[in-house]
Request: fold
Amino acid sequence: MVSYSEDLRSAALSFHRFPRPGKLEIQATKPLANQRDLALAYSPGVAAACEEIVADPAEAASLTGRANLVAVVSNGTAVLGLGNIGPLAAKPVMEGKAVLFKKFAGIDVFDIEIAADTIERVVETVAALEPTFGGINLEDIKGPECFEIEEQLKARMKIPVFHDDQHGTAIIVAAAITNGLLLNGKTLADVKIVASGAGAAAIACLNLLVSMGAQRRNIWVCDIDGLVYEGRNTLMDKWKEAYAQKTDKRKLADVIAGADVFLGVSAGNVLKPEMVAQMADKPLVMALANPVPEIMPDEARKVRPDAMICTGRSDFPNQVNNVLCFPFIFRGALDVGATAINEDMKRAAVDAIARLAREPPSDAAVRFDSETQGFGPGSLIPSPFDPRLILRIAPAVAKAAMASGVATRPITNFDEYRGRLERFAFRSGLVMKPVFAKAKTQPVRVIYAEGEDMRVLRATQQVLEEQLARPILVGRPSVVETRIKRLGLAIKAGKDFDLINPEDDPRYRSYVQSYIDVAGRHGATPDVARTTIRTNATVIAALAVVRGEADAMLCGVEGSYMRHLRHVREIIGYVPGASDFAALSLMITSKGAYFIADTQVRPNPSAEELADIAAQAAVHVQRFNIKPKIAFVSHSDFGSYDTESSRKVRRATELFTERHPQIEADGEMQGDTALSGSVRQLILPHSRLTGVANVLILPNLDAANAAYQMIKVLGSGLQVGPILIGPARPAHILTPSVTARGILNMTAVAVVEAQERASRQPTLFG
Reply:
């Protein structure tokens, strides 16, 4: 039985029961809103799709969901640590696997639990599913039958068949061993490997390691009956036999001495501390039994402080978790129409995972309370939540499939392919892509006020990798350097970014004078100025922009929004014609991208101000290569209410359309009218706005802020911004909840804005 607390059991049962049973649902990808939709989706229109597939079976990939559909299949004979619990009881696990496919790689899954307890019946059942699926993921089928089942299915089927318990584990193990040997200066061909466990996962791990260069003569395998040796006739099969050694040794304790790698895929506490003490210099201990590993990490380190340790648990570093690879291997295989997942594709995945672990970590993949990050003994493999996994593994697998001749739909442009994958890695990826592309054409200098913040430091690494800007950080050198090391980042002050030290900068006096010049009439006496320049990073950043030492600034990662806004207002000021600032927030949801204003600044803007906010918002929206469709939102639908608020919004609409008739805009209208073209047609068939509005101008701060906060929570919206409207120079104030990715996104926004201002390009609707 699996060990867990009663609290966890209760929470897990509640999680599966509410708000509706299970973890999966089926959603339509096409609308069925009217009779014509029904005629296209089903009879008679569906016949056209059927006829195309009859003429060319490959058309199934473009006319149906098959190319993105995987079956997770189990007969329930080896489920987790529960054993042979049968297919029905296995269903929660298979649903969970399906959720992981969808969450991490956007792959649709049907979980299929089959009442089949013989090799022949499993093979016949699964093989008959080939017309439905683009790939088969075998799961929780006991060994050694699982070997034969997979072997027969791979021979019969022309789609990928992948037993994740075998190969998923093997790929992660191989990546960890690759990096462990790199750190300790050993080679795979020379190391001694001792395995505890000879089931599906263990044998697959060893087979993959052998294909990568490990020598069979250096591999020693033990199972519940002891060492696998030549002549043993109990609990043997042809897969174990391949690793039988000619020896008189019989137990794990007899063969562990001098081992470079211990591979445990067996049972808790079988590896004793005295055994670890006998291992070779800088041993790699992979104690993967769950929930109790073969040896607890702290016990291993007591006798061998030089050991590198991996487990299968999430509460220790170096977790070997199959979710690191299986969604992304299938993503790459499906995207090229692979007929199999072969050894070349698996080795490509190993290499991609190992290489990613050696890159600086992503903020989405680490906990903020982590003390050590970056490649090393505690980080041999990436976190399962590293969003870059799909960007590294899927293209590597796709390329390997093409090179090995199993791809039926080869990818011709991998840059475009990686761009498409970004929608899984970063939800902002597709929306931000045009902005990133523009930013890269002419990188500018961006100064970050909170240069000591860990998110800013991670973002700085990413800005340099993306070649978006020359970063300037405000921060104390010793603090910045210490945190860069803690995060495992590969950036250096002076070389990769510039640093303004508020405690000791040669420009201190001139900055004080600059502050007095711009803020003297706002109460900045010389004494106040001297103190402020030593203590206020936002003031320093704003002055750097005004002085021409930076082209754009970002602040607000720490502290209140309005405090930062006050400094931007007094130092940078307004763009000509603007009377105040406003904030434009981009919300990216599953239904699209929506810009909302003003979410941060003006409590109750006038009609004139609303029209001005809309005009400046449209400028920013165009930078995303999005055609602005503006709705002035109210509680009233085109005169259905006559209140002070509705009249104000109506007047704002009139002012805007008079000044910018070429932009689609209308109002006043209610929220559902703005977001539904069909609803709007019923209310006002001749509206100046077509389709769905993507820019929502709300009547006041209460409405705008509440709207975007609710979308963020209820619609799982991802925020980009806030984008500050109206400053004389590019300056944006973030919020304390921003991530490193959010800072990266706003860097690109600021860079494009600075580029346009430098070239004095016409930006309004031209």
